[in-house]
Write a structure and sequence with these properties.
This protein has 185 residues and is an alpha+beta fold. The chain folds into three domains: 63 residues, no CATH class; 28 residues; 73 residues, LysM domain (Membrane-bound Lytic Murein Transglycosylase D, Chain A, Roll). 58% of the residues lie in helices and 13% in strands. It contains six helices and three strands. A hairpin with a 7-residue loop joins strand 1 and strand 2. It starts with a helix and ends with a strand.
């Protein structure tokens, strides 16, 4: 046996010599009885201490997992449902705020030039035509929204008619469009 093993087992070299001499004298049975009795008396106390600490550790693990085992699936379902409702309410609120348009805003139109009037001015409003140069990312719907502040199919068709546009998706960058705009007086 190695010295470290002997040290951990609590056996000295003298005790090992006694054990070797006993085995040579054919007293194996008596030696085993003596060894068992030695270990039972000396090591029993150490084993009891170790077993007690193992039981305490098992009890801690059992207590920690016991709390989570008591919840039923209905609890998790209810929590998930409530969280989903709150999440969807937040999303709905954010979308409704983002889609609101203020009523008293001034639309600033860049790169817009007034060409002239299309019809005779009336007492209520006048119709003017504005020139707009198509930029990257512009669509006919987006341009109509920019000038009129809302989506109006009739106004989009009017822009198509004035500019002789057959396919609204076929407008190109740099193309000049004439936009009829009515101004209230």
């Amino acid at each position: 046996m190695k010295g470290s093993t002997l040290h951990r087992s609590g056996l000295t070299r003298e005790k090992m010599g006694v054990l070797a001499s006993l085995t040579q004298n054919d007293k194996k049975q008596a030696t085993r009885t003596q060894l068992n009795q030695y270990y039972k008396t000396q090591k029993a106390h150490e084993l009891d201490i170790l077993w007690g600490s193992v039981q305490k550790g098992v009890q801690k693990v059992h207590n920690a997992t016991k709390a989570t085992q008591q919840k039923s699936p209905a609890v998790y379902l209810t929590i998930g449902f409530i969280a989903g409702v709150l999440f969807m309410s937040c999303i709905f609120f954010i979308v409704s705020i983002c889609s609101m348009t203020p009523k008293n805003t001034v639309d600033i139109k860049e790169d817009v030039a007034v060409i002239g009037t299309d019809s005779a001015p009336t007492a209520e409003n006048t119709v003017t035509e504005e020139k707009y140069v198509v930029k990257k990312g512009d669509t006919l719907n987006g341009i109509a929204y920019r000038f009129y502040g809302k989506y109006d199919e009739a106004k989009i068709l009017e822009i198509q008619r004035i500019n002789h546009i057959v396919n609204p998706a076929a407008i190109s960058i740099g193309q000049e469009l004439i936009i009829p705009v009515s101004q209230d007086r």
